[in-house]
Request: fold
Amino acid sequence: MKRAGNLFDAICDPDNLRLAWVKAKKGKEAKQDVFQYGKHLQQNLNDLRTQLMDGCPEIGNYQFFTIYEPKERLICAASFPERVLHHAIMNVCHPVFEKYQIYHSYATRLVFVTK
Reply:
């Protein structure tokens, strides 16, 4: 496997962080935590960038809840700032990972329709 370089700088890039916010909020604009994050967007993105550069992003602030369909399951949901971080990382790393996936791997893959 060939080593990919400069990924961290690309992840921390302000344009990438803004794109990550756009992707993370898609379909969730009505939620209070998403609204609050967007209300102070530039400050939140700057804070996230600073945390990344310092090597200590805030993670682990999960919300736990139980669903009962089709069976009882405990769900562990990441906070909205962590979702932004997730998207920022995957915006940069997904193309690198995609090159090395086997054909029959389907999780978080780009969908290509062929006719």
Notes: The chain has one domain: 7-98.
